[in-house]
Amino acid sequence: MPETNGHDAPRVGFYVCHCGHNIAGIVDVAEVARFAGTLPNVIVARDYKYMCSDPGQELIITDIREHRLNRIVVASCSPLLHEHTFRVATEKGGLNPFYFQMVNIREDVSWVTENHDAATHKALDLVRAAVRRVAHHRSLATKHVRIHPDVLVVGAGISGIHAALTLANAGKKVTLVEREPTIGGHMAMFDKTFPTLDCAACILTPKMSAVKNHPNITLWSYSEVSEVSGYVGSYTVKVKRKPRFVSEELCVGCMECIDACVYKEGKTPDEFNQGLSKRKPVYIPFPQATPQVVLIDPDTCIEFKSGRCKKTCVEKCDRNAIDFKQKEEIKEIQVGTIILATGFKTFDPKRIPYYGYGKYPNVYSSLEVERLVNASGPTGGDLVLRDGRHPKTVGIIHCVGSRDRNTNRWCSRTCCMYSLKLAHLLKEHSEAEVYNFYIDIRAAGKAYEEFYDKLLEENIHFIRGRVAEVTDWSARPEEEGKMIIRVEDTLIGVVRRVPVDMVVLAVGMEPQADSQDVRRMFNISCSTEGFFLERHPKLAPVDTFTDGIFIAGACQGPKDIPDSVAQAGAAAAQALSLIDAGEVELEPNTAYVVEESCSGCKSCLNICPYTAITRDETRQKAFINEALCKGCGTCVATCPSGAIRQNLFEDEQIFSEIEGLLQEKESVLTGGGAWRAPA
Amino acid sequence: MASTGMKQGTNGWEPRIVAFFCNWCTYTAADLAGVSRLRHAPNARVIRVMCSGRLDPQFVLDAFARGADGVLVGGCHPGDCHYMEGNYKALRRVRLLQRMMKDMGIHEDRFRLEWISASEGEKVKTTINTMTERVRALGPLGLPERFAEWDEEMDGLAHAIAAQEEAVHA
């Protein structure tokens, strides 16, 4: 890599991108190029349709060689998108890649400015700043860090399971952490899956046992990540393993302790069955739960509450697996990459009181109905209502907690299709008349529209309109004892009252209740809705802004099983590509100490959150450990002597940017300003 | 305060705001504002830093000295800093600097710190819009012109003193 031309007088190549009409539609790019050409040090100034294209990059490479350029400035989109692209082009031209500076005139100018003149003016200021800044750039070497080959996957729904298996099959060691006592997530609760109607358990449980049996996967269920530190390639993670009060090593899942429990009947609402059945204090979430290990709920177990239980469960267990003294354990692991697949929570329909959930017993959430029609569910698949009746008419209300200004504005993407599926299943189980109340049917997906077509032929009714209310106030004899769904049928323009025996609320998908805590722990961002934020909505959908941390499944936004699995595979592939590369390049934006200026005052020592700064006691100077420094620059701003500097964000680079931004005319104010920092 | 060199009135004058945005939250939010096409006042010029903790008070003073009418600092919300606590450091510095600038006669509305997370594109828009309006209401700060004026005054005084001394010696 040539290190030479950095010390020569700056010869700047300037390029402004049209980005089709994205930039050129608002910003006068020809004027920007013309203006740049008048700035000091600028040798070449061009505008081009798409700078990120191969010919665009080739322009830079050829110009560097032909015009002996030693600095490059590109005015185009956000550096978060294409800084890397142009650094590579700069390097291909024979320069150190850090002799490049980018100007954001798309996200920061053309896309947010209405007025053409104002936009062009803003662009010119930004260009002037960048051209000034780039003169102060220096040649830097990228840092490389090794990638620990092990991976942490958080959340063991279908996304986490698929990601873990993909990585494990590639020979990587995976720790899979799941909060619940069993893996499987929401998918394990579903009855059948659209549009193929294959049973969820039949396709999921083989993958669940594959996870359990895979030599490369360490499965920690009933566990939560409690602390994360480190950086890409080298994360230290603490995992809290909650006590099951049953030894995972000893229990074989015979479930005899459950039968032996002094409670003859369950008294606690069963979480897995959405409270539609009761469980005992000693229980297993569902028959195919993985791991096949029972657990004891200390809140309801008599031994825990009074200490005077007969402990028939202990007597019954011939493997002595039950251990009332089991304590929470904290495990620490080292990994290089992390995949978050923490899933979603369903919308709480109590938030829409006029749909009567929690008021009328026969109003169900869709997840409850999944359990109700399931052969291994609380009723063995018999569609019997809370009041013991079998429904003759069912109304399914779509978009509950979705596409609604009062609750959530987003479309949950899955409800149309699962409502169609439930309509089919309810019809199949009960021969009931089924009404769907929908806003639009969104059946975009392979074989989804065809599934909708099929349902239209199954004599299922579709009424287009957002339901106003579910009420038990009957106005006609045939409405007696029923719930009445009041809705405007927008296709025929009349308000209808549809009496039904059962109401199903197609609840939407929301971020997990603790998604904000989780994102803080992993140092990633959330979108406005609270779903985890991807690095780029199209081009980096499973990456986050924190290197080495990937997201998959519904924690990133509502999605169905095929999309979740696809994303999980993508996240696994991204982790693999890091691991197999063996090391990763880090931005060389670390801080360093100019020893001559350091007075050894120690102001910087406590400022650094990574304890990267120490004081060399013999020399009485501060010393920065480059491996620990993450490049925030806080110490740089703290140092009273200006002795700490930051690569890529040097004082004179930022001062020259300020100067460039504010310098309307070239002649005004050259040289040091009133409060110019000591160089 | 009389100011000869300053652009007078509001005719054709537009506030110039220098904005320091942290890479992880506020700069990303500004990108989101762009992607969401949230049009806002074109008066802010963004300088990207990795963390609001990098904000050297001299950057702010330099910006004002060079003709900025306002300075905006955007960082991650408390507890959300990508570097754990750089935003707290920024907060302390900004508070101190705000006090100092008040003493220097720079109105507090000209210097603003705002926490804007990566998802708050809307907040970028409203912050820039409201700040632009407030600064517009305050009018130009025009420090470079005032400096020039003061320099001129000083030169005048120096000349007068020199002339006096010459007269005494003569």
Key traits:
heterodimer; A: 679 residues; alpha/beta; Rossmann fold; FAD/NAD(P)-binding domain; 5 domains; 5-stranded parallel beta sheet; 17 helices; 34 strands; globular; disordered C terminus; B: 170 residues; 2 domains; 4-stranded parallel beta sheet; 5 helices; disordered N terminus
**Total beta strands of chain A:** 34
Number of helices of chain B: 5
Helix content range of chain A: 25-40%
| CATH homologous superfamily identity of the largest domain in chain A | FAD/NAD(P)-binding domain
How far apart are the first and last residues' alpha carbons of chain A, in Å? 28 Å
CATH topology of the largest domain in chain B: Rossmann fold
Total number of helical segments of chain A? 17
- Largest interface pair: A-B, 60 and 58 residues
Low-confidence stretches of chain B: 1-10
* Second CATH tier, the architecture of the largest domain in chain B: 3-Layer(aba) Sandwich
Q: How big a fraction of the residues of chain B is strand?
A: 5-15%
